[in-house]
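Q: Structure tokens for this one, please.
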Amino acid sequence: MTKELCDKWTEQQLAEEDIRKRLTEIRAGSSAYLGHIRDEDITQVARCIFSIYQQYHRCTGPGSWLRALASDSFSEIMDHADENSLRGVYLYRHYLKYDAPRDWRQKLLG
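A: Here is the predicted structure, written as tokens:
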């Protein structure tokens, strides 16, 4: 699944629904850690990752939450995350580490 999603990302064929389905799979495979993640949380994380994907291809600067996420700084993430974002931190990390192109941070941050 990882290569397929990464290919869709680089070929500009990724849909928000692709992301949502993958996040649901991640939650199911890590239910011991992610039992508290609701469907609404997955939808919110999918929207945010889709925004990262769009900004990656448009070369536009991220907002404060996405910048904190891309900086990979725990303190920045904690400073800028709302309650929903905090619940989904593991999902962001997992998806962006295994399913996004390796250069997503550099391209997003410029």
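A few notes: Residues 2-104 form one domain. The radius of gyration is 13 Å.
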